[in-house]
Amino acid sequence: GPDIEFVDATFREYVQIFNHLAVTVEEHLIVETEMIKPLMGSKGQLDSILEKLEQRQAILQMEGDSLTDNELEMLNVVRDCKISILELQNIQNQFLNTGDEDILETFKAISENETRTYLITLYEFAQALQNSQIEESAVQAQKAIDKFLVYVAQIQELGAQEYQSIKTLGTLGSQMLEKIDAIVQTNSLFIQSEIKSAVKTVTVIVVL
């Protein structure tokens, strides 16, 4: 009858949305894995620059000499950049652990002001000292921040899709149970038990 056809069609739609939800959750996990890499790479580059400058400083000091004023300034700026990147990594980790999107406003505020200023200053020092490696590191660090924000936008979109899918699954599940209740009024207790058990099993899987 019409009720059974409705349940059959609704169940097919339910399974389709459930499968889509599973794919979305998998994509979400992949993005979360990838989004930590850009800032990690930037920190690695800054660590490398810092190590070279500090080694040069140590060698010069042993020879009774020192870094030039520009090199000293750049050393300080690299340290500032590293501290700022570490601060962004901390915020990034808080977001991944909690999913709290308000934290992202802090990330954006720091990255668009403090961190960007340090990276621009670092780039300008590197240009003045004709150090293309440090120039490139400054550029890549900024790109890493931008890439993280792209990942954030992806996660927000995937999260919205997941929420909508779960909401729709809940609605479809309720509709099926209502129809099943109507069907079993005129059918055996065995059919009632089997159908309800199958639908509730799928509903429990979604909740978990």
pLDDT averaged over residues: 84
Quick one: biggest sheet?
Answer: none
Strand-pairing-aware structural class: mainly alpha
Q: Span from first to last CA? A: 33 Å
Shape: rod-shaped
Order of helices and strands: HHHHHH
How much of the residues is beta strand, in percent? Answer: under 5%
Number of helices: 6
Number of strands: 0
Radius of gyration: 28 Å
Description:
With 208 residues, this protein is an all-alpha fold. It has helices spanning 2-34, 37-62, 69-98, 102-128, 132-184, 189-207. It is rod-shaped. The two termini are 33 Å apart. The mean pLDDT is 84.
Describe how the helices and strands are arranged.
Blueprint: H1 2-34, H2 37-62, H3 69-98, H4 102-128, H5 132-184, H6 189-207
Features:
single chain, 208 residues, 90% helix, mainly alpha
TL;DR of this structure?
The protein has 208 residues and is mainly α. The chain contains 6 helices and no strands.
